[in-house]
Amino acid sequence: MPMLRRCLMLLVIFTLVTGANAANLVVRHVQPESDKDQRHQYFIELLELALSKTEASHGSYTTQTCAVRMMQDRALQQVQRKRCIDIVWTMTSLERESKLLAVRIPLLKGLLGQRVLMIRREDLRRFKDIQQLSELGQMRAGQGMGWPDIEILEYNRLPVIEGKTYEGLFGMLERGRFDYFPRGISEIDAELKQHQREGFVAEPRILLSYPAPIYYFVNPENTALAERLEQGLRLAIDDGSFDALFRKFNYHKLADLMENRLVFKLRNPSLHPKTPIDEDKLWVLPNLVKNLR
Fold first, then answer.
1. Does the predicted model carry a pTM greater than 0.85?
2. CA 51 – CA 86 distance, rounded (Å)
3. Which residues does UniProt assign to the signal peptide (predicted)?
4. Closest residue by Cα to residue 116 from 267, 276, 257
5. Which CATH number is 2-109+213-252's, of 3.40.30.10, 3.40.190.10, 3.30.70.260, 3.30.200.210?
6. How far is 24 from 40, CA to CA, in rounded Å?
7. Which of 17-26, 43-52, 109-118, 222-231 shows the lowest mean pLDDT across its residues?
């Protein structure tokens, strides 16, 4: 009897401990890459939304910001090594999906692949007569080291100059190290405001367009978190709260900015075959994405 009572007590303790652990999920994420970097707030709020949608079924959670500032490549490595962060949000590629577990819900609904050119104001005249992609190919684009866009641009015969850090790329553009900096249509307004001193502008005519979904990525062994996030995101899509957050950041208005532009459609050779191209509700412009396959 004493042995049975002891076993029952141990079972109760084990259940309480494991239950508490399950109910208090901690999800660690990156911090902005610089003091001027405003790109992360939407993804943090969307992460909170997805986790809150599954709180009743999966338990409570806490999100934490990693104290160490890191560039995109290092953040991916940290997730892979289970150090400092559990999740990263970034543009997908075949390489990234081979190393990490992607939650295949496009967080920006395809807007990231719609690229406006950030240029120096004095260079507006150089761009105004461009009509062919080959003419743009005579200029140099700037991109961050390790970004998947590099492969896409070079595959489509657009020369690229790489920079080591996100913030450093703006200095490189200012000094003429490259001619234009392709920015997501959801990114460029905030970046221009942050860099008013440099005199950058958004080139008014040209749009580079390619399928470039941005996903949440977790360690391949963290299937529980991946499944919870996908379930939470899909619940948010179905009940309208995903779109409500999308509208809060005014992303729904950006599709109008793409009208009347000269669109250069680029092929993405690193797009995973399991990209959910045919799920119309996941994209802000589903027909455009399908035409870019």
1. no
2. 14
3. 1-22
4. 257
5. 3.40.190.10
6. 24
7. 17-26
